Amino acid sequence: MAVASDLAVLLYAEGESLPDVVTALCEPADATGRWKQQTIVYPRGTLSARRLLLIGMGKRSAITADTVRQAAALAAQRAQEIKVATYHVGFNGDLPLPPAVFGQAFAEGSVLGSYRYTRYKSDREEVPTANAVLLLGAGSDEAAAGVRRGQIIARATAFARDLANGPGNEVTPAFLGQTALELGERLGLKTMVLDKPQLIEQGFGGILAVGQGSANEPRFIVMEYGSADQGPTICLVGKGITFDTGGISIKPAEKMDEMKMDMSGAAAVFGAMQAVAELQLPLHVVGIVCAAENMPGSTAYRPGDIIRTLSGKTVEVLNTDAEGRIVLADGLFYAQRYQPAAIVDLATLTGAIMVALGPHAIGLMGNNQELANRLIAAGEATAERVWQLPLWDEYREAMKSEIADLKNTGGRYGGAITAAGFLAAFVGDYPWAHLDIAGTAWVEKPNRAYQSRGATGVGVRLLVELLQGYVG
Ligand code: BES
Ligand code: MN
Ligand code: ZN
């Protein structure tokens, strides 16, 4: 830690001895290494840093990538408060994790810990984010590679947060289309944005029905990274409802404002596309976004309407607030044309998943256990935890209509799973997983130091980890 700076940070495990120079500066009782304990000491020349922040990591055996991510976020927040330009961070003793894993988690926590959505604050202070420098002895090359990966992934997550925090009057379907074109331009993705006349011409009956009540016309967006000869094809499909009023089956006023985040699945797809392109993963990744605004009005679709989706399958609309599955029907069917090795959709699909799992897990349902297992493992690795629910035939049966092929609601119970039962009708036999992120996409109060109030950007880190698993 022999670096001159305004702030140095030392992460240390509980009950482990600190260097003598550090011990000399503090009361042992104030620096036990208890998890998240923060102690600031002032070396006054005994070390080259003006301040030394000690962050307790808890028991060494309990240190994971996620504790490192959280500690790095706490350090970033202190650095921001003190307004330092650069700070240095070290770990006391042997590194508790492989250096690449440590470096990645450190960078993710550092970048995300200082994320705030300030775009519309006129009086915002322009504090440039402090530059976090990781100082390690052994394994520093691997750690540095991890840091670079972590920075890419965290910036992609922040991009997803910005989109989902963006209000409905800014982040419209057309805005998402424009965002895709700009992303494609910047990263060399092949992009396609279909507008309303093109959707009509090509028969996207699901997206059109949901979007028909809004002056902000729907879009269908495809972003393609790589090509099929470069590696397996993975399709990522995002629900992009830029505002969900519920439509004619209108939602109550309370907290309706939060429904600007109903495009969080799309935001995760955008973030993942940015990250895979910047990481140059040897894969073929197709990002698909179904963007529409769900509004009531004289042109809106109604309960009782029967619509014909892109697949040709007809849907009886029983509740216009079950709109996510209708737009996804077109996106999932479209994904089949790539003959993908996997289709993964992300959607803030149901209140029922919030009842089932609360804010601590993404709901997973699908038709392929191998893909499900990959996602569960990626969830453990990233702490974007995933919990699987069954998708037995009974749940698919519950979505059959008397007068059309399907209906869009399946009764009160098991609502998250019957929603998945509906989606299952549009993926054919391709390996498919559905991630219901309604409970995890938004936090009123952060659960982790690397979150901030509002959009979490959930799904980006998970998807990148999943995709990394298909490499090689
Ligand atoms: N976007 C909502 C789900 C949602 C609720 C996301 C709360 C995030 C927070 C979705 O479109 C919806 O309205 N689902 C209905 C379905 C019902 C009508 C079958 C729901 O869950 O109540
Ligand atoms: Mn809805
Ligand atoms: Zn919705």
Characterise this structure:
- The strands form four sheets. An eight-stranded mixed β-sheet has the order 6-7-9-8-12-16-13-14, with helices on both faces. The chain has a five-stranded mixed β-sheet with strand order 2-3-1-4-5. A three-stranded mixed β-sheet has the order 10-11-15, with helices on one face.
- The protein has two domains: 8-135, Leucine Aminopeptidase, subunit E, domain 1, CATH 3.40.220.10; 155-468, 3-Layer(aba) Sandwich (Aminopeptidase).
- The radius of gyration is 24 Å and the shape is elongated.
- The mean pLDDT is 97.
- The chain has 14 helices and 18 strands.
- The protein has 472 residues and is of the alpha/beta class.
- Zinc ion binds next to strand 8.
Total strands: the figure is 18
Structure annotation, total helices = 14
Shape: elongated
The largest sheet has its strands arranged as 6-7-9-8-12-16-13-14
The CATH architecture of the largest domain: 3-Layer(aba) Sandwich
Please, what is the CATH homologous superfamily of the largest domain? Zn peptidases
Number of domains: 2
Q: Quote the average pLDDT.
A: 97
